[in-house]
Amino acid sequence: MKPFRYxxxxxxxxxxxxxxGRAASRYLGGGTNLVDLMKLGVERPETLIDVxxxxxxxxxxxxxxxxxxxxxxxxxxxxxHPLIRGRYPVLSQALLSGASGQLRNAATTGGNLLQRxxxxxxxxxxxxxxxxxxxxxxxxxxxxxxxHAVLGHSAQCVATHPSDMAVALAALDAQVELRxxxxxxxxxxxxxxxxxxxxxxxxxxxxxxELITGVVLxxxxxxxxxxxxxxxxxxxxxxxxxxxxxVLGVEDTRVRTVRIAFGGLAHRPWRALRAEEALVGQExxxxxxxxxxxxxxxxxxxxxxxxxxxxxxxxxxxxxxxHLAAAPAAPTS
Amino acid sequence: xxxxxxxxxxxxxxxxxxxxxxxxxRYAAEYRPDGCAxxxxxxxxxxxxxxxxxxDTAALSVPGVIKVLSHLNAPRLAEPDDATLAVLQxxxxxxxxxxxxxVVADTLEAAREGAGAVRIDYAEEDHDVTLRTDHPDAYVxxxxxxxxxxxxxxxxxxxxxxxxxxxDVEYHVPPLHNHPMEPHAATAQWQDGQLxxxxxxxxxxxxxxxxxxxxxxxxxxxxxxxxxxxxGFGSKGTPRPHVVLAAMAAHVTGRPVKLAxxxxxxxxxxxxxxxxxxxxxxxAQDDATLLSVIHEVTGYTSxxxxxxxxxxxxxxxxxxSPHARTTHRVVPLDVPSPSWMRxxxxxxxxxxxxxxxxxxxxxxxxxxxxxxxxxxxxxxxxSAKPFSSRHLAECLEEGARRFGWAERDARPRSRVHxxxxxxxxxxxxxxxxNASPSQAVAHAFPDGSYVVRVxxxxxxxxxxxxxxxxxxxxxxxxxxxxxxxxxSSDLPAAPLAGGSSGTxxxxxxxxxxxxxxxxxxTRSGGKELPPEGISARADTAGTADADSDYARxxxxxxxxxxxxxxxxxxxxxxxLLGVYAAGRILNxxxxxxxxxxxxVMGLGMALTExxxxxxxxxxxxxxxxxxxxxxxHADVPVIEAHWIDEEDPHLNPMGSKGxxxxxxxxxxxxxxxxxxHATGVRLRELPxxxxxxxxxxxxxx
Lengths: 333, 701
Hints:
The structure holds 2 protein chains of 2 kinds. Chain A is of the alpha+beta class. Helices cover 31% and strands 20% of the residues of chain A. Chain A has a domain of 103 residues: 2-Layer Sandwich (Enolase-like, domain 1), CATH 3.30.390.50. Chain A is globular, with a radius of gyration of 19 Å. In chain A, 54% of the residues are buried. Helices cover 25% and strands 23% of the residues of chain B. In chain B, the strands form 5 sheets. In chain B, strands 3-5-1-12-9-10-11 form a 7-stranded mixed sheet, with helices on both faces. In chain B, strands 7-15-14-13-8 form a 5-stranded mixed sheet, sandwiched between helices. Chain B is globular and about 75 Å long. Chains A and B meet through helix 14 of A and helix 3 and helix 16 of B.
């Protein structure tokens, strides 16, 4: 393990300034992924800027009904928060389906978004990986690709994003708040992570030195029926083979609002815009759900070992839509 | 001895429990001698070839790095029997992950950084790591002890063809990893020509003997201590490369050296269960009696060491049939050396046999419990020896009663709860009775206390505790008066904790030593003992390993109920129950723990555990506990373990059979059979993960 400098930031400004002033810096949140990667030699930062004690650990409601999640709120606290459980059950469920209790106690909102793929070739310095070492090749394409992407992958990279939380945020139309040397900006959660293309080394749209300060959940999804379904190789403590987050609003026997995002299928949470478009205004029938989801998944290009992900994703999405269509709307307060 | 003394059988709490839960029990990596240095191995980055150059410049420039060892500068060792221990002796790379260098440093971090900085050049050769049943290099290994090779009774093929009812099926079991909680670790120190090693091992006597031979020392110049061991499941049953490297590094640097293997390196260097392909042909008469059994098992071994996963061994024990052929074949490949993993042979073999028996029951239209009862026997089919005790029928019947088997609707897909299909299954279990010679010393002190000394190893099983119980009963004293000293090669020599034989082997010697001591105490007629007390010694060579006229095995039955989600393909076990006939149960508490632990491991084998040999790179894709899925708490339902009282005079003085492995045998078959009963679809490749189950359901629908 390479020696590194440790800096504790006392304010957002101090954190971004420290980052800008040092080469090869990394922000440290819960450390549940970054520290592992440092031990493996995948991450070799010169400086760790500890942002875990910044005053960003609140969950607050704004007058317009939107809710802001601080970047350092721990996953366990967020999942258990009454506002989240009551209005955004999909987010609470997604968080609780991830990792283990101990990890969720340490992991932060910002860090969860920035966790890196668990692709075994990315984690093994002895093997090629374009994400870790651009130009070295893709080990998974030659090797074992059961857990890899079926949507949006490239010749360069077939990795998936491992976060459950990010899938729920994509389905909630959340906004990610950033602060960088050029000041603050926001990005839609669904566009925060990138597809690999020919730059798989870039997981997100973050600019160098930018810090996630929070995530805003809009009021539009509050209180609508929503849920998360995750399928994995064991009942707990495993990454998704496929997962889906759904928000569904039905009025007068018609779909008024629907947002669907898949996890485990792509390099980022896969917002199913085509399926959503196909469903709005339709009657929420099994046939309509199946047609819409098939439309979305028709562009899937499974690899040698993961063709199963397409029917699996279809099944869980249709089942969850059916389930939510039959559910009463949750109270909004 | 008075009848009132009954230490054996009682649910005595394990003696080191408080030490373990308070963190005062020390494991091999927790010893920190003064001046201790740290070692980190460098695994080969190719699957086959030779090391052509080692550049240690960058590694040696890492602050704190003391030494970089490779085959170019490492001390020469005597040639070991086990080729996996010939570390850093030559340039060849027999598989990916084979150690090609070792970095020693003042700190763990520097050793690790240094290991990453060693540059190795290779002459790479094409590799072949793919197991195929039609591989041209497949061969039938020599039958070393009745468990491998090929056994034939009658004309199995002709009988199979002529029978009215057939099953001809192929089952696949993937590579499996032992992954004990405590990774392999050793702390080694040389002082005045004396080597002392704290090693995480299942048998310190063997580690001592092997180190003495490798470093050309008399055995009394080596001490190996394995006081507490966090599991092994066979992977610590023989010395592993880490202990040789630690001793070598300590010798070269003149400092104590600690080497704790990182989890991700374990799959390549500490053994694993070879994948196996099982072709099972069963033929029966219309009355459900077996006519012919053909079990062909193909597994792999490495290029440097033959290890046979003896998957057909249990088939020679289970059911009588006039005709049978059981054949093992192995294919040498450029893979890490496979080795012992809990119930080697029996676990995959009984998965295949007991699944095929379930298929035969379906073909015959008979209840699967009935099929096994119909084919029960008092005589071991292959050897024609009488069983010393069997009681398989009693296990099946008692299990069926407790499980509520009589209420089961035999039709597949007969229980539907929404999207979940519920089913139940049964499988038999067996494991041989093993024992090896051991020595032990029993000592009486004037204050009425006793100590027994034997180099047993407690790998989490409760060995310390049960040996005190054995001693107490043989001495006729309360168990509290007996102390147990185990876990050091300076104690009387003893075999490993493995093959479900530890308690039988050590207990036999402890019993004999204590019986002799009791006799001496009786002869002395209550005279006061000398201040140092008196001792008695036992050595069971020639006794514990004597041939028997009986076939000696434990048996059992497993029952499982599962729910299969037709939306996701997820299988969840709802109930698991095991009933065992394993001789006399010596400690009800620790025995139950072992039975249940075995069942959980069988659950993992059935549903979650599987490793993939990467054809492109030649190593296992699932290299850590995030990728290799042992069952989590959420996977494990309520598990019941019961046993029947079995009196068998042909075993050992305690009347016990081994209990450490039988729980994993047959469990996967019971679960797989339950999945068939739930869904009507037969899956023949483990583990039954959602991808496989969903694909099979879609194909079957």
